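User: Can you help me understand a structure? I only have the sequence.
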Amino acid sequence: MHTATALLADAPSGQATDGALTGGEATESDLMVALPDVTDELPCRAHDGELWFAERPEEVERAKALCADCPLQVQCLQGALSRREPWGVWGGQLFVQGAVVARKRPRGRPRKTTAA
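Assistant: Let's start by predicting it. Here is the structure, written out as tokens:
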């Protein structure tokens, strides 16, 4: 069994933390707060983790679609943004070189002419 965590800033107001902030410096345990035990329902736990870092555009779109019903989608995206994740699907969004992009481009050179 795993415990999901998120940054304290993402926690509902009034929820207690593991430790107290001291001297204005936050420790890792101060910044993390336990989330409801829903890890068995999380698509990223139920499916192959490689899917969220896939090269093929159709696999990336599948990962994004699986994130749509995830109960931690918002927290996942906020965490990825705050950590400045360089790539992968996080919270239903695709990160490429640290930026959120709409679609993954296929590898290789683009065609010079349109395919019929």
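Now, to help you interpret it: The chain has one domain: 5-101. The two ends are 51 Å apart (CA to CA). Let me know which part you'd like to focus on.
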